[in-house]
Specification:
The protein has about 280 residues and is α/β, with parallel strands linked by helices. It contains 9 helices and 11 strands. It has helices at about 35-45, 85, 115-120, 135-145, 165-170, 180-195, 225-230, 245-255, 265-275, and strands at about 20-25, 50-55, 60-65, 125-130, 155-160, 175-180, 210, 215, 220, 235-240, 255-260. Helix 4 links the parallel strand 4 (about 125-130) and strand 5. It is globular.
Amino acid sequence: MAAVNSDGRGRFFTGRRPCIIGHRGAAGVAPENTLVSFRQAIQDGADILELDVYLTSDEQVVVIHDAAVDRTTDGVGKISGFTLEQLRSLDAGYRFQAGGSYPFRGKGIKIPTLQEVLDAFPNTPFSIEIKENNRALVRELIKVLDRNGRLSDGSVICASFKHRALAYARRLAPQLATNFSKPETVAMMARVKLCPALWRRKRSFRYVFQIQRKVGRFNFTNQKAVRAVQALGYEVQVWTVNDEREMRHYLAMGVDGIITDFPGRLRKVMDEISSADR
């Protein structure tokens, strides 16, 4: 699992190098948010697995990115309209295309529950994104994490760009590390630029700064911005970076982690940089 500093704050990268964060597993090479994708990401060198969660009609926390099953399965309809048993009948590898074919169709790949993913990867850190402002989803997510001892061990980032969902998660589990919601991200960038001291006050919950390359009018492609956020004690993770040149750009900038659909590609780039520095 992720190491924990002496002050109790989790570090979500391992060793001396930045962390490789598998976006929905290894979404570029396997059906996203499935056990197949997560296994591939770990095999390809991912340090952390990123995934997304929704709630079924019978209040089961399932791992899927979209509110509906249409884009990734052979089914149609919103997750909230399915029971877990009904979701089990869908083929989660149906839509994944590679080289003009559909190599994962009919392979028995299912939409997993969060519990199944945690069971399959008990020693792996996770970044778990709450996809909707749904208090029931947040409550059930916290219950699953608590049952698995994942609330305060420094191995989970609770992420969301839905401010109300994130605020509710912090209220239920203030010990859980979170990212910044979208409005917090924009405010943070403005305050870091204008007056960093505004963000130095003590907080009851822990932050990880997960950032797109550009948020609104703020372009996060400069080292000054990264260093400013890190100086406030927050880790900086950037997403979603799939191009090798961009990977090198962010690694040179000193980010703490890169979220990518291709963990193997990022691992290769990092190994090449490491070899060149010897």
